[in-house]
Amino acid sequence: MNVIVDLCLIPMNAETSLSPYIAACQRILKEAGLSIRLHAYGTNIEGEWDAVMAAIKACHVKVHAMGAPRISTTIKLGTRVDKAQSMDDKVTHVETLLSDDTVV
Amino acid sequence: MNVIVDLCLIPMNAETSLSPYIAACQRILKEAGLSIRLHAYGTNIEGEWDAVMAAIKACHVKVHAMGAPRISTTIKLGTRVDKAQSMDDKVTHVETLLSDDTVV
Amino acid sequence: MNVIVDLCLIPMNAETSLSPYIAACQRILKEAGLSIRLHAYGTNIEGEWDAVMAAIKACHVKVHAMGAPRISTTIKLGTRVDKAQSMDDKVTHVETLLSDDTVV
Amino acid sequence: MNVIVDLCLIPMNAETSLSPYIAACQRILKEAGLSIRLHAYGTNIEGEWDAVMAAIKACHVKVHAMGAPRISTTIKLGTRVDKAQSMDDKVTHVETLLSDDTVV
C-alpha cells in the first residue's frame, strides 16, 4: 500500500531552533530511499506504507538520542485504491486549474 | 518505545455518515489489545509503537475494503524518554490544576 | 456557522510539563462560554466559528505571556451544512454501533 | 500577531477529485493578499492572524457553497514572539544544514 504523508515532528523542550533536528530527520528519510519534499511546516513523503512508517519511527529514536526528552509529531496519511497518484500529480492538478484563471 | 496517539481517519467520498467506518476501526484497535478512548474528533490510543502502527495500517486496509476509495488520516504521536506517562496522567494533571481554581 | 474543533496547543521550549499552559487555555475556553472536553491529546470544542477562533487566539496570546517564545498548534475543524451535529452525537453514533457487537 | 499556517481542507462526500475545491481556496487566499505555497498535502500560509483566519473561514463557506455538505480541515498554526521568521527562513535554515553534509 502506497502512502503520501505529511510529517511535522516537534521536539519539545529543545533549543528554540529546530533546524538541527529537522535536518537529522531529512537525512534519515533520504537514506531510506523515500521521495521527500521539505516545506515551511513539515515534509511531504511518498513511499510504501511500512518503509515510510519505519523511517518516521527512526526519526523519533534519533531526535530523542539528540537530547529531546519529549516529541509531539503530527502526521497526515493519504491512501487511495482507485488509482495511483504521486505528490507531483496532486500539486499539478491544482496548478493546472489555477493557470486557466482569466487574468484580470 | 511507548506512544500516545490521537487518530482521526476520514474515508473520503463515503456516505455522509462516517460512524460505520469509525466503529470498524474501534473494533480493530480493541482486538489489537490497545488502550483506546473515543472522543468527538478522533480516538486516543496508547501502546507500543509497532503495535499501534500495525493497527492503524489495518484500519486503512479495512476502510478501503468497506468501499472507501480514498482515505485521509491525521495522527498525532507523542513519545517521551524522561518518564512514563499514561493517557490518564495527562488528563489528570490538567484537571488537578483546574480543580484548584477559586469558584466564583 | 457552527464548528466542532479539536485543539492541541504546544508551547515549545517550555518546561517539560505542559499542564499549566493547558490549564490556562481551558480557563479561557470556559470563560468564552464554549462547550469543551479535555482528552489525552487535545480538547474538543463546540461553538460558533468566530467565538471559537477568538478563544484560540486568546490562548496563543496567553501562552506567550506565560513565557513560551514559540507555539505550534494543531487544530481540526469540522463544519457541515446538511444537519446540526453535536460532539455528543458524534460519539454516541459510534458507541451505538459498537454496543450491537456480539459479546464473545 | 503574525502566524505561519499549514492548511489542509477536505470536503467530504465530494467527487473523488478535490482539485476544484483546492483551487477555489487558493484563489480566496491569494485575493486576501496572503503569502501562500501549495504542497502535496496542504498549503503553507503566512500573514497576520486575523487575516489568515478570515480567509480560512471564507474557504469553508465557499466549499460548502460548491456543494460539499461536510468539511474536515486540519490546520497547523505557528506563532513566535522571540523573533520574526518567514516561511522561507524555515526552509532555508534546514537546507543550509543539509548542504554542509559530506557527499558520500
Describe the structure.
The structure is a homotetramer of 104-residue chains. The first copy, chain A, is globular and about 50 Å long. In chain A, 41% of the residues lie in helices and 33% in strands. The first copy, chain A, has 104 residues and is α+β, with helices and mostly antiparallel strands. Chain A has helices at residues 19-31, 49-65, 87-99; strands spanning 2-12, 35-39, 42-48, 70-80. Chain A has one domain (2-99): Alpha-Beta Plaits (2-Layer Sandwich), CATH 3.30.70. The model of chain A has no long low-confidence stretch (mean pLDDT 93). Chain A starts with a strand and ends in a 5-residue tail after the last helix. The longest helix of chain A has 17 residues, at 49-65. Chain A contains 3 helices and 4 strands; from the N terminus they run E-H-E-E-H-E-H. Chains in contact: A-B, A-C, A-D, B-C, B-D, C-D. Chains C and D meet through helix 2 and strand 4 of C and helix 2 and strand 4 of D.
